[in-house]
Design brief:
This protein has 63 residues and is of the alpha+beta class. It has helices at 8-14, 32-37, 42-49; strands at 17-22, 25-31. The protein has a domain at 17-54. The model is unreliable at 57-63 (pLDDT under 50).
Length: 63
């Protein structure tokens, strides 16, 4: 099943893997907790930085 969402708390609970896209291109993909907890791409880190108040870890923009 494919689920498209911007709700990272929900994705973290239900998804086995995630794919982050920007401008129609895959930016980063992998196991959900690995990508959310330790993103490797600046675009992923920036996106996740918007969710620090929702209980997700705050991710530094520069790594």
């Amino acid at each position: 099943m494919v689920l498209v969402t911007h709700e990272m708390t929900f994705a973290r609970e239900v998804a086995d893997s995630v794919v982050f896209m920007r401008d129609g291109f895959v930016v980063e993909e992998g196991p959900t907790r690995q990508v959310i907890d330790t993103p490797t791409q600046p675009a992923t880190r920036a996106f996740l930085g918007h969710f620090h108040s929702s209980g997700l870890p705050t991710v530094a923009a520069n790594g």
